[in-house]
Task: structure prediction
Amino acid sequence: MAVKRGENEEFKQSGHVLDINEIYKSFYIYMSQGEEVISDKKKKRWFSSKQENEIKALQDIFLKVDHGEFIALLGPSGCGKSTLLRILAGFESPSSGHAKFKGENINGPDPQRAMVFQSERAVFPWLTVKGNISLGPKLQGVNSEDMEKAVKDTIKLVELDGFENAYPKTLSGGMLQRVAVARAIVNRPELLLMDEPFGALDAQTRNNLQDHVVRIWQSIDQTIVFVTHDIEEAIYLSTRVVLFTSRPGRIKEIVPIDLPHPRDRTSPEFIEYRNYCSKLIREKEKQG
Amino acid sequence: MHGTVFPPIEPSEVISTFFFIVLLFGSFMTVVIANRFIPAVINVSFVKGYSVICLFIAIWEMISFSELVNPVLLPPASRVASMLVFLWSIGFLQSQIYATLYKLAYAFSLALASGVTLGVMISYYSNVFSFIESFATAARVIPAPAWLALSILWFGIGSASAIFIIWLGCFFPIFLNTVAGVAKVEPVQVETIKTFGGDKWDVLLDVVLPTAYHHILTGSRIGLGIGWITVVTAELASPDAGGGLGWMIMDSRVLLDITSVLCGVSAIGFLGVVTDSLLNSLEELVQTWG
Result:
């Protein structure tokens, strides 16, 4: 598939796609009448006297991501890996440190950094499959001919042919996530961020979708950062697994996975990797 | 218009009860047969609804015909039907319908525009609604016609005073439902728009309005119902509110012309069904994705 990424080729020689340096992130929790409001800013509130507590979500994260890598951020829930992803997407800003994308500070959302959300609700129920997928090109003012072509190619890529005019309520959970993936990659972004996209699916559908993602990653030469709490998923998909410890989130270890795709979940090497990662996770549980 | 004496209907113009019942049955059978051939336009639920209306009118006719009640206080349906035809033929009914619908449509459009705009704006600043919630509740429970006296003083004699209170009646259901609808917006959907480089107007058009659409429609239907109550009340209460069906009812009552009163009532009922089904057909749009 012909993809315009000349700019990226240039960049490939000069440095990393992502450069995450000394990221530190803290939240303030406001407590009042049983409700919990997490805010990333210390707001002055005139009409309440709420208790403020600070939690550290991330501390001292150093990570460099090269073009074409498939990074899995692995850790238990609440370890800050989703926060890191949201920082990369530009929805949140770090309290200190910096995250750079192609040498420039990340400063708000950008079409070059697409995101696949965990929630199935991210797919707009009032638009058809085709309408959902053409959302990105439409918002960026791509002309209708190019849009038509890009949407058609992407639908083929995620194997949703024949469902172009179906509404989301008629689709299964797995198909909905494929729509979400298609919508994110239709513009061929430099970086694809995925926030536990298959967390709510059954095991079989999840395996199926993992194969889809690997195939897409290989066929359009994408850089992917994938958040998961599933060890097997992380090892099956990624080129490097970044293991997190929780509260505050720190990188415990980065495990490069030297296995060719497609990977076999039952091969001895795979099981070795899995045991190694499980051991690391158990270790940090003991420490915690 | 005020003080118009309706020309009495000549006895020869009034269709006989027997003929009226035949006519009623004939129209019902026409609807049933039409259902066979054009079910898309005349569907089964229409036939069911129409049959009850025909039955109701037939029973009413029988009660008046047998003089179970005083025919002056409850004129037979056939007489009301003749009167409707007569009032239509002299153009009087049309001008009253126009006066009422004009006020209602004017005020309703204003209420829809202002209710949706303010509802979206207030929801955008999520803190603001908690400040105005109790005020909105207080303003909502005051029946709109209670403002009529003030409204006439402020806006003078004519349609404007009525339009103000109809707007007041329609506004709150639309406004409060819009706020409730916007509260249902999924943050992930807003973030999705942002990742594609959309600004806040894209968020408004592509996420907020489609999400709130259903609620806005519900608010509009409630608002329209209240609008009908308010417009008729305003016309009943004040001959200065610019004429209309409510005024026609009140004016005929003064002259003890109960036939014309019933003409006004049935015209309101018919128009109410039409306006509500217009909004209802918009709601069917939602079913495709609902």
Summary: The radius of gyration of chain B is 23 Å. Chain B is about 75% helix and 0% strand.
